[in-house]
């Protein structure tokens, strides 16, 4: 689940951006790629478009898009939105000079989002670019990078499985990994693994089980992708897009599912859980996971946030100490449900990462992807391919890419399914956590993407 994470100041390579924007124009990679994105192509969306998450990072993205459209930006406005360290590296005069070279900057889509950081695909000067933005503890921008959209990561891809293992263990002390082929009967055949059967915290990867329960209801005819759902105050949980909509607003199952998977929208998640019923999700995880019992009762995102942010650590300690489904379910219904989200604050150090979370092994996650690929159909495929998190697999080699990941302070997880042009399907999952400290999520995320990208290359070689 995407929750507050610690940001680290990084020097912004704006000069490289300026050089990029004055270089020879290149076609948008999306125009020739065969990899479905699940996102409409064509006209870019203007600043302020729906889809920008209602997080601190999302609010600063809206401001940046507006500011870039009308430079020069007043010093007072820059000071209000940019950290002192940022402005020390890039003074207002220089920043305004460089903003002047971002003519027509427009948002195409947000591809990854946490409360304190996001990545997005934007367009300026006729080129598609990747924007990375992060905020500090005060909510001010302290990370801002633009790079060519077809250069997803500066970190080199690993050349061997031994290199994957070595670099993975450098990300965090607790890691699990699986690169597997999904066979014709839906089984996961391991190709390479690190502790593939050990249960670990999943973060927002748990949302695969919610989607599975939704797909099952659709298969049984109890829902359709077009079924309208009504937002209630009970499910309006930040971050995300639906959180910003008024109570009583309507949203289809399709839109809620897409937001839950593509930007990890928490309101969408709880709305879908409320629609299918918590016990249906529990039934799904018990069928698909070898560690389903660790997720019963299956937490809503509201309950998760309250346990970690309301009267911490009192509530989290009490919940973690309870034994058995009945005691925990009673505590959620009688104690946690009565609490308000008002006044809750972000946190900067790990909180009960190993005890208040959703859990599964890399093998469990692979199985969930495999099951979804068999039961969902084309509509579910479009939901799962709406965001590739910047993985950027070659569309000639890989015809489809699905993604779900998650993060909170002290945890970062990623899992991808990709289908090759040769007709094979693979799943690569990396689960990392450090219950003792917060680590640099932006740096770790780039490294995990490189490791996953290299893993798919190794899988393709056979």
From TrEMBL:
<dbReference type="InterPro" id="IPR000871">
    <property type="entry name" value="Beta-lactam_class-A"/>
</dbReference>
<keyword id="KW-0732">Signal</keyword>
<feature type="domain" description="ORF 12 gene product N-terminal">
    <location>
        <begin position="53"/>
        <end position="141"/>
    </location>
</feature>
<dbReference type="InterPro" id="IPR040846">
    <property type="entry name" value="ORF_12_N"/>
</dbReference>
<protein>
    <submittedName>
        <fullName>Beta-lactamase class A</fullName>
    </submittedName>
</protein>
<dbReference type="Pfam" id="PF13354">
    <property type="entry name" value="Beta-lactamase2"/>
</dbReference>
<dbReference type="InterPro" id="IPR012338">
    <property type="entry name" value="Beta-lactam/transpept-like"/>
</dbReference>
<dbReference type="GO" id="GO:0046677">
    <property type="term" value="P:response to antibiotic"/>
</dbReference>
<feature type="compositionally biased region" description="Low complexity">
    <location>
        <begin position="30"/>
        <end position="52"/>
    </location>
</feature>
<dbReference type="InterPro" id="IPR045155">
    <property type="entry name" value="Beta-lactam_cat"/>
</dbReference>
<feature type="signal peptide">
    <location>
        <begin position="1"/>
        <end position="25"/>
    </location>
</feature>
<dbReference type="GO" id="GO:0030655">
    <property type="term" value="P:beta-lactam antibiotic catabolic process"/>
</dbReference>
<feature type="domain" description="Beta-lactamase class A catalytic">
    <location>
        <begin position="194"/>
        <end position="290"/>
    </location>
</feature>
<feature type="region of interest" description="Disordered">
    <location>
        <begin position="27"/>
        <end position="52"/>
    </location>
</feature>
<dbReference type="GO" id="GO:0008800">
    <property type="term" value="F:beta-lactamase activity"/>
</dbReference>
<dbReference type="Pfam" id="PF18042">
    <property type="entry name" value="ORF_12_N"/>
</dbReference>
């Amino acid at each position: 689940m995407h929750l507050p994470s610690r940001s680290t100041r990084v020097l912004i390579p704006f000069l490289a951006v300026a050089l990029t924007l004055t270089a020879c124009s290149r076609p948008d990679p999306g125009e020739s790629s065969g990899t479905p994105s699940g996102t409409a192509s064509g006209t870019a969306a203007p600043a302020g478009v729906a889809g920008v998450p209602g997080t601190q990072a999302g609010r600063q993205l809206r401001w940046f898009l507006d500011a870039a459209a009308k430079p020069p930006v007043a010093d007072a406005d820059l000071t209000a939105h940019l950290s002192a360290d940022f402005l020390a590296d890039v003074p207002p005069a220089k920043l305004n000079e460089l903003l002047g070279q971002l003519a027509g900057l427009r948002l195409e889509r947000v591809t990854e989002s946490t409360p304190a950081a996001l990545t997005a695909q934007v367009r300026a000067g006729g080129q598609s670019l990747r924007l990375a933005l992060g905020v500090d503890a005060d909510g001010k921008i302290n990370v801002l990078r633009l790079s060519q959209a077809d250069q997803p990561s500066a970190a080199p891809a690993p050349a061997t499985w031994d290199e994957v293992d070595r670099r993975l263990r450098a990300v965090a002390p607790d890691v699990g990994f699986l690169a597997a082929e999904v066979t014709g009967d839906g089984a996961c055949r391991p190709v390479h693994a690190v502790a593939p059967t050990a249960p670990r915290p999943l973060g927002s990867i748990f949302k695969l089980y919610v989607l599975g329960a939704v797909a099952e209801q659709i298969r049984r005819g109890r829902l359709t992708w077009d079924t309208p759902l009504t937002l209630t105050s009970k499910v309006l949980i930040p971050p995300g897009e639906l959180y910003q909509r008024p109570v009583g607003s309507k949203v289809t199952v399709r839109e809620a599912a897409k937001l839950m998977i593509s930007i990890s929208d928490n309101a969408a998640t709880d709305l879908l859980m409320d629609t299918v019923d918590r016990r249906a999700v529990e039934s799904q995880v018990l069928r698909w996971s070898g560690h389903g019992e660790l997720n019963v009762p299956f937490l809503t995102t509201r309950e998760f946030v309250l346990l970690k942010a309301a009267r911490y650590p009192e509530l989290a300690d009490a919940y973690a100490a309870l034994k058995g489904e009945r005691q925990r379910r009673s505590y959620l219904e009688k104690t946690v449900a009565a609490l308000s989200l008002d006044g809750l604050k972000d946190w900067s150090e790990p909180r009960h990462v190993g005890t208040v979370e959703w859990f599964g092994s890399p093998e469990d996650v692979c199985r969930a992807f495999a099951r979804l690929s068999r039961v969902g159909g084309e509509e579910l495929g479009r939901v799962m391919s709406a965001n590739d998190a910047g993985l950027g697999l070659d569309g000639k080699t890989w015809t489809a890419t699905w993604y779900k990941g998650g993060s909170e302070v002290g945890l970062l997880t990623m899992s991808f399914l990709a289908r090759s042009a040769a007709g094979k399907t693979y799943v690569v999952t990396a689960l990392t956590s450090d219950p003792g400290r917060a680590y640099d999520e932006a740096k770790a995320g780039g490294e995990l993407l490189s490791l996953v990208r290299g893993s798919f290359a190794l899988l393709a070689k056979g």
